[in-house]
Amino acid sequence: RARRARASPPPGRLCERHRGARSVSGTRGRVAFGCSVRLWRNGMVGVAGGLEGTNYSASAEVYDPESGTWAPTGSLTTARALQTAILLPAGKVLAPGGYTGAALVSAELYDPTTGIWTPTGSPVVPRAFHTGTLLPDGHVPAAGGSPGPPLLPGA
Questions:
Q1: Cβ atoms within 10 A of the Cβ of 59, count?
Q2: 47, 61 Cβ separation under 8 angstroms
């Protein structure tokens, strides 16, 4: 059974997959295809990257379900879409891979206490449309996805 967040998302969709597309809406009105969305331990929701129109985005935002408000936070160091986001035990968020015309072989680490993204160890294989899972020993294997151009809706 799926776990629910503490409060409902804002009117519209917080993040919904529809044939591979994700959209983010709310007070800020930011819409992005292929952004990563992660629920943090403190109940906040982080949204990063994506494709906004025809531009890859490095922007990141935080949604507070208690107040129903969005706030900008530190930008990714590399604009990217179709990355995954993994919550690590210390509360940081790992965002490996992604796509910017080609699958990426880089990763970034977000610290919600500082609002800063920093480059970190690179994946072995470039991936987009993939998943990552935190294992009990702290490793995060990536699985699936595509090392080449992903199939985009309408393509």
A1: 19
A2: yes
d(CA 110, CA 87): 10
The C-alpha atoms of residue 11 and residue 68 are separated, in whole angstroms, by: 9
Number of other residues whose CB lies within 10 A of the CB of residue 89: 9
Per residue in 75-116, pLDDT tens?
999 999 999 999 999 999 999 999 998 889 999 999 999 999
Left (φ > 0), alpha (ψ -120 to 50) or beta: where does 98 sit? left
Q: Are 68 and 52 in contact (CB under 8 A)?
A: no
Name the DSSP class of 120.
E
The top-scoring range by mean pLDDT among 66-70, 92-96, 130-134, 141-145 is 92-96
Distances in Å between the alpha carbon of 52 and those of 3, 41, 58, 136? Answer: 29, 27, 10, 35
Measured on CA atoms in the order 135, 124, 60, 154, is the torsion positive or negative?
negative
Residue 14 amino acid letter: L
DSSP conformation class of 140: -
State whether the Cα torsion 74-151-38-14 is positive or negative.
Answer: positive
Token pair of 29 as six digits: 């009105």
